[in-house]
Amino acid sequence: MNTVRPDQDDDGQPSRAQLLALVQRGLRSRPKRLPSWLFYDERGSRLFERICEQPEYYLTRCEIALLERHAADIARAFGPQVRLVEYGSGNAVKTRLLLEQLEDPVCYVPVELAADALRVSVERLGRLFPELPLQPLCADFTRPLRLPVAPRAPRRTVIYFPGSTLGNFESRDAVALLRKMRGEMGEAGGVLVGVDLKKDPAVIEAAYNDAAGVTADFTLNLLVRLNRELGCDFDLDAFRHRARYNRLAGRVETHLVSQRAQEVRVGRMRIRFAAQEAMLVEYSAKYAPAEFAALANRAGLTVRHRWTDPDGMFAAFCLGR
Ligand code: AVI
Which positions fall inside the Histidine-specific methyltransferase SAM-dependent domain (predicted)? Predict the structure, then answer.
């Protein structure tokens, strides 16, 4: 659902025609579905930052606690003179905790499609690590990357993919992305990936249904975006956010549910929604450690180390060939 994005304009967003075509395709499929990367326009990215601060959304706090406790061990596992390539522009706190511990890092390569987000994170890290060469790459990390030439030969390239974002990919797309990382890291390289672990479903569901309603606003913002960018006429009061944990599939499935029978204009098409019809907008997969190891194996990668936060909620896996 996430992996294949169309080509983008300079601002990292698809053109109007591309967006219209992919939205019409998603709304004609049964069940209706839209890719979750559509959440992240400017407002959506800000709402996501607020989600990370909600008391119910444990993921960010636990991943930071994990790094506070284990960043030195993680850095030791990778050894000196690492080239660190991060998929996504990087949460300043997480990236800082890791970079602080790396011994004599060769360079840091943040890979991010949104040019503004990339610039902001590079400025921030440049202030924190004035000696470290920064090589920002404005690109879609789901596509093959041409990494910039490193300023000196690294001993190892490490692809860092924090935040449980891999959980937003369907498993075959997650395997394809891990396989791509395997190619980019080279023979001696490694992958460091943040993974949300299976736990009490009530705790997981609460994280995606915060009391302040920030996640609901984040999900509904997808319709705001389509109204603005495609001239659709989604009535925001006629759709509701629903996030449920599917135990069998091991993932949160987020839907926008139509509150009545209605028709919506999408370009020249009129799309019919039945009352209570649910449109799939996001998966957030949760893994048991053995399940994640099996996923990595499908991509030709092996778990070398695993660290968890003190409460055992979130894990960081170090993968190698
Ligand atoms: C970015 N990603 C890992 C988040 C998650 O937990 O799946 C996105 C999110 N969706 C709703 N809340 C947070």
Answer: 22-319
